[in-house]
Design brief:
- The protein has 4 domains: 99 residues, Alpha-Beta Plaits; 139 residues, Beta Polymerase, domain 2 (2-Layer Sandwich); 169 residues, Poly(a)-polymerase, middle domain, CATH 1.10.1410; 132 residues, Sandwich (Immunoglobulin-like), CATH 2.60.40.10.
- It is 34% helix and 19% strand.
- The chain is built from 21 helices and 20 strands.
- Strand 8 and strand 9 form a beta hairpin.
- The chain is globular.
- 42% of the residues are buried.
Length: 629
């Protein structure tokens, strides 16, 4: 276990943790770990453990206290406010603060032995931490709402859908979407709609029947439900209520129990299509045989929130400008990309529920998180947003798509999989796409290595909070674009024949080249002609690359068998700079493979894959035998 996992131990333990932050600039006195412990002791708090994640500008300490009562008291302690130290619970009213999660992942990534899978586990565990009081309130209020609806709709059923019930839900902060339906019964009579409009409270004495429920317009049912709920004292005491008569009309119930929790319930009627949309996302996550897509989707949403593409719950996470992206859109960008990676339509929304998602394996398609991120970012960086739109697996010209589906074009055009006359991304503005692409560019500029920094916009360039990597390439290294199928698990990495010949001529040195061939621009330690791994269990070897040339260089890793993966796959090195690369062998029957390190003068392009495609390497390749015993 790493330091962050040890710090929390379990969810109950995390509730005793607080975060202390202070700005170092313009302050006469800074605080060390020891200094903070002394302050806590002087103020009468019993601190069990602390970890630090400070920078030149800001001090940050995560502190575990003796009990929950102390955690509550310290957050409102005026003495700390006088010292200009901001304090809040680690698991705050609306879950983790984005910057707290990022800082903790940075701490976890300091351990050189920590694996990418562990880092992803740490991040997803952190961002799913939820205040138990919030969860309890939500459960109680949902039951109150269900009872209220059953008083108005005969055989009424409330089904939760959307973000709150999603497998990729971050934490409790989300509007709770509830779709009301009615189960069949024997009453076939239908009262005139005008009778309900004139006296909606008549439903409290004679609830709306199944036949009426599916005969009346949604908007009129919503108005009637609203009037009936307003008439109930319990609802007036517990909620602020209003109607929102939009494309799908809803009653909005805002909880008044703890206003800071910002809990809200959106009630729609006869809205099975939205329930099914939510199920498609859950089914897509569940069909991943390697069980990694859930964490990957959560990471990308977290990345988008951290970098202000999506808004967060806390004050410093709010958007100055709303770009109209949302998690639904981003999740479907992920689904579209994954289908392109598989070169197969994985989502068949109009098939029977049990058949509408084809089984797939994240590991077989991408061989790790970094490979997914690299290809996902490259795909949407190169996407032609101006002329093309997304329709499930397909990419179609916007004008044709608009004509086919009867929708208007927009800067980002994506047809809703189940509601095919709806452009799900219609409201995304041009500046939103510009920010999305800019964040991707900054992300791709960084090397793919184990780091916990997911932040681009406020703390500088991002490294992908890493994740394991193995980019699978075919022989001619097809370009990832909207026109081409992206690299798939069916494509095998090819080691050029001249590289194999070179090794045969002198198998004792990974750096030896034939007469007249280019010399490598990097050195590799440990040196030698082979690396030995365990056959039946996962094992890793750390290589150190060093730039031995007189100019900035770039490198690319290729391997001949999918049982081995590398992190990073691409990278750059300044003059004299060194960088670590992890080679991992996953349990398999593969015993031997070849690793080829391609290196070249840096071409100045953010997209390293593109640079290697368009230019011949200026450095000689290095070939290493990989042997599992």
């Amino acid at each position: 276990m790493n330091s962050v996992s040890n710090f929390f131990i379990d969810k109950t333990s995390s509730l005793r943790c607080v975060v202390l932050r202070w700005t170092k600039i313009g302050r006469d006195q800074d605080y060390s770990k020891t200094g903070i412990i002394n302050v806590m002791t002087a103020f009468g708090y019993e601190s069990e453990e602390l970890i630090e994640s400070s920078s030149e500008q800001e001090g940050v300490i995560f502190l575990k206290l003796g009990n929950k009562e102390e955690t509550t008291n310290i957050c409102s302690d005026p003495r700390l406010k006088e010292m200009r130290i901001e304090v809040h619970s680690l698991v705050d009213l609306n879950g983790m603060h984005l910057r707290d999660a990022n800082d903790l992942v940075k701490i976890a990534s300091i351990d050189r032995n920590v694996t990418d899978n562990v880092l992803m586990d740490v991040l997803t565990e952190l961002i799913c931490l939820e205040n138990p009081e919030r969860k309890k309130i939500a459960e109680e209020e949902v039951e109150i709402i269900k009872k209220g609806i059953s008083d108005v709709i005969e055989n009424g059923v409330c089904t939760m859908f959307g973000s709150y019930s999603s497998l990729v839900r971050r934490n409790g902060y989300s509007d709770i979407d509830m779709a009301v339906s009615s189960e069949s019964e024997n009453t076939l009579s239908v009262r005139p709609l005008q009778m309900i409009i004139d006296n909606p409270k008549c439903l409290l004495e004679n609830p709306m029947t199944y036949t009426e429920f599916y005969s009346y317009p949604q908007e009129e049912i919503i108005k009637a439900i609203f009037q009936c709920l307003v008439d109930k004292e319990e609802f007036r005491e517990k909620f602020e209520m209003r109607t929102l008569l939009v494309r799908t009309p809803i009653v909005v119930l805002k909880s008044t129990k703890i206003p800071e929790m910002k809990m809200s319930y959106d009630i729609s009627v006869n809205n099975l299509i939205s329930v099914e949309k939510s199920r498609i996302l859950n089914d897509f996550i569940a069909k991943d045989k390697s069980r990694k897509m859930r964490k990957m989707a959560m990471f990308i949403i977290h990345w988008a929130k951290t970098n202000k593409l999506l808004g967060g719950v806390y004050h410093d996470e709010k958007l100055e400008k709303k770009f109209k992206f949302n998690s639904y859109i981003i999740n479907h960008l992920i689904i579209h990309f994954t289908q392109k990676a598989a070169n197969e339509c994985l989502v068949k929304p109009f098939d029977k529920p049990e058949n509408r998602i084809v089984d797939y394996s994240f590991d077989e398609l991408f061989h790790g998180y970094s490979a997914f991120l690299y290809q996902f970012f490259e795909y949407y960086l190169n996407f032609d947003y101006e002329t093309l739109g997304i329709y499930g697996f397909n990419v179609i010209e916007k004008s044709k798509l608009a004509e086919m589906q009867g929708v208007n074009t927009s800067p980002l055009m994506m047809i809703d999989p189940l509601d095919i006359t709806h452009n799900a991304s219609f409201h995304v503005i041009e500046d939103g796409i510009k920010l999305f692409k800019n964040l991707i560019k900054i992300s791709l500029e960084k090397k793919f290595h184990v780091k916990g920094d997911t932040e681009v916009a406020t703390l500088g360039p991002v490294s992908m909070a890493s994740t394991v990597s193995k980019v699978t390439e075919n022989a001619d290294e097809k370009k990832i674009s909207h026109q081409d199928t992206i690299r798939t698990a069916k494509d095998k990495t090819t080691v050029k024949s001249e590289d194999k010949t070179s090794e045969k001529e002198n198998p004792k040195s990974q750096k030896t080249e034939r007469k007249g061939e280019k010399k490598p621009l990097i050195s590799v330690e440990p040196s030698g002609d082979s690396l030995a791994f365990k056959l039946e269990s996962e094992s890793q070897i750390r290589l150190t690359f060093k730039n031995i040339s007189d100019e900035k260089i770039m490198f690319k890793m290729k391997v001949s068998d999918h049982s081995y993966n590398m992190n990073p796959v691409f990278g750059t090195l300044e003059i004299g700079e060194s960088s670590d690369v992890i080679v991992t062998h996953t349990p398999s029957q593969c015993k031997e493979a070849k690793l080829v390190i391609v290196n070249s003068k840096y071409a100045g392009d953010v997209d390293l894959a593109k640079s290697f495609r368009n230019r011949k390497p200026t450095g000689g390749p290095i070939t290493i035998n990989l042997v599992a015993t």
